[in-house]
Each structure stands twice: as C-alpha cells, then as structure tokens.
C-alpha cells in the first residue's frame, strides 16, 4: 500500500515539472490517494496476475527456447546440415521450385528445432519432416530421400548433443 502512495506522489512530482505550478496543483488535488485497500482487492489483483492462460505460457516458453543462444547455434547447425549435399540439386531446380524449396526448408528447420526442444525427442517426426521437404524435388528417388533424411537426422541429433554438452560444461 505504501508503494501506491509513493507511485502517485512520484507521478504528481513529474507532472509538476512538466506543467506550470497552478495546473499541477489542480491535478494533484484531483488525484485521490486511497487510504486503505481492502484485502479482497489485493487478492483480486494477484489472482488476475496469476490468471494467465496455458496457451500464453506455452507460447512464451517456446519463444524463450527459440531466442536462446544455444537455440540459435543449433538452428544454424540444422540449416547447414539440411543444406549439405543439396547444392547441385537446388541450383538445377526452376526458380519457382527453388523459392518453394527454400521456404519449406526454413519451415522444416523451425519444426525440427521445436521438436528438439521437447523433453522426448521424436526422431520419426524429424525424419518425416525432412522427407516431406525433400519430396518437393521433382523426380527424386524415394530411397535416396529416405536415406538422406536418416543421415541428416543422425547429424542433427549429434549437433543437439554437442550443444547440450557445451551448455552443461
């Protein structure tokens, strides 16, 4: 409660500095400082602060995961792993397919990064995301796609383990 009075007094002092003295006095008089706040009002305020939806908490948690330095290094490593060995294939694609392939590759990177941030890593989903991305290449051999996806998944998991070792040391 003393904090509220202090804040109101500070705001009135700021107003005094910004406005002329008569205007500040009028404004100070118009601001009512409550003498006592009931306990129920305090409880309501604290309940409102704690009343955050689960979606908000999950979204903020995902954002924190995505913004961490480890995640940025891991995202860059995932990008490099996904690009590895596909330069010739990418350059031989038509311009429209290149744009689509690149956009889907970025989506795949984000999806893989979020899958890696989960407690239980679902390798099958990572392989599936890479396979779906590689299927955008017209006329590509399905066995090559599966083999490449599995190799890239192994490399991504190794990069994830390296990042965790760096974090723990």
What pattern of helices and strands is seen along the backbone?
HHHHHHHHH
* Mean pLDDT, all residues: 74
Q: Count the helices. How many?
A: 9
Rg over alpha carbons: 28 Å
Q: What percent of residues adopt helix (DSSP H or I)? A: over 70%
DSSP strand tally: 0
What is the total number of structural domains? 2
Q: Which structural class fits the helix and strand makeup? A: mainly alpha
Low-confidence stretches: 39-67
For the largest beta-sheet, the strand count, sense and barrel status come to: none
Strand content: under 5%
Rough shape? globular
Q: What would your notes on this structure say?
A:
With 169 residues, this protein is mainly alpha-helical. The chain has 2 domains: 2-50, no CATH class; 68-168, no CATH class. Helices cover 80% and strands 0% of the residues. The protein is built from 9 helices and no strands. The chain has helices spanning 2-18, 21-30, 39-50, 54-67, 69-83, 87-91, 95-117, 123-134, 142-168. The longest helix has 27 residues, at 142-168.
Short descriptors:
169 residues, mainly alpha, 80% helix, globular
List the helices and strands and how they pair.
Blueprint: H1 2-18, H2 21-30, H3 39-50, H4 54-67, H5 69-83, H6 87-91, H7 95-117, H8 123-134, H9 142-168
Helix pairs in contact: 1-2, 5-7, 5-9, 7-8, 8-9
Outline of the structure:
This protein is an all-alpha fold.
């Amino acid at each position: 409660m003393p904090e509220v009075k202090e804040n109101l007094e500070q705001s009135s002092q700021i107003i005094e500095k910004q406005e002329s003295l008569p205007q500040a006095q009028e404004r100070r008089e118009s601001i009512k400082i409550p003498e006592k706040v009931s306990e129920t009002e305090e409880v309501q305020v604290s309940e409102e602060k704690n009343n955050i939806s689960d979606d908000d908490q999950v979204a903020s948690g995902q954002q924190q995961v995505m913004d961490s330095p480890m995640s940025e290094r891991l995202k860059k490593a995932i990008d490099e792993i996904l690009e590895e060995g596909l330069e010739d294939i990418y350059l031989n694609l038509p311009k429209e397919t290149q744009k689509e392939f690149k956009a889907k590759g970025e989506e795949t990177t984000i999806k893989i990064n979020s899958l890696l941030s989960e407690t239980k890593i679902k390798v099958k989903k990572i392989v599936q995301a890479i396979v779906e991305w590689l299927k955008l290449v017209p006329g590509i051999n399905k066995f090559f796609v599966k083999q490449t996806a599995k190799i890239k998944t192994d490399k991504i998991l190794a990069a994830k383990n390296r990042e965790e070792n760096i974090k723990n040391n």
